[in-house]
Prior knowledge:
47% of the residues lie in helices and 16% in strands.
Amino acid sequence: MTKVSIAMATFNAQPWILEQLRSLAGQRRPPDEIIIVDDCSSDNTISTIKHFASINNITIKLYQNEKNIGHKRNFFKAISLCTGEVIFLCDQDDIWFEQKIEILLKQIDPSSGVHLVLCDAEYTDGVGRYEHITVIDRCIEATGDVNSHIAGACSALTKGFVNLIEPRDFSRIPQHDVYINRFATVLGCKKVIREVLQIWRIHGSNSSSSAMNTARRRSSLMLFFDYIAVDPRPDYEEKIACYEEIKSLIEERKGSIKGLGLGDSVDNIIDRCNRTISAHRNRLKFLSASYGSRYTILAGMILRGDYRLLYGWRSAVKDGFICLLGPAFSRIRVARSMNSEDRL
């Protein structure tokens, strides 16, 4: 039977951790181990976990950091300590439905090259009231693509995939779930299912401040005006650095990739990574160019198919608006950034 690990990173989780642990212990297909790494909590997180482990028939391995290492490093530490063939990533403040492990375990299929699977999650507020919208609903509103769903809390991945993507330079990668999904997209080993298998609790202490960490609905027009308030160039610089790191790891670990049973050759994967890097560089070039030269860059990106490697037609439409608005775009951005408190 496949060994299942759960990797959890905790920090001041005392208000929510007990409900989450109960949901893990109540799985129809129980985990073989729960690996928890605490990042120097100052509340009762540790004592709550220890007490729960002492009165429940479930394997919990608790590790405590000597100093705070941050959310990203802490999650990768928890993942590295897992010994299961399939690893479920787990936030400290969610609640899993009892069938989550059972269903996602059936979707993971290394023989077919599926090494990362994500389920959907229902948003609730801090006290558990449903917001009647799911994470995938928000993804579709924002990008029109279910594959833009990247939440680590909804993810299960194979140990073979984990070993391949182990970061070498944390300064060149974003949050753990963003990095994992970018790597999986390049490899072509990701699968998203629409089944809601957990609660995603929204409260003032969520570790992520991303736009997905809100249950409020956004129309495409609202999202566009949110976009105007933000200069996206630093984001593209970060993405380029991340994909360059991914490419470097792929080239270095070719043997490990061949062992994953993917449908693509390593050369094709590297080529896809190169095209992704090129598309992001061209978008950065477009955003930094003078207004007069943006039309030429935009046309080139459309002809090369760069937007298929970004957010499709939505990215192209945004760039078309930037061209049409010309210098007025900068004035709108300045005005919006001065008055906007909620940015995408």
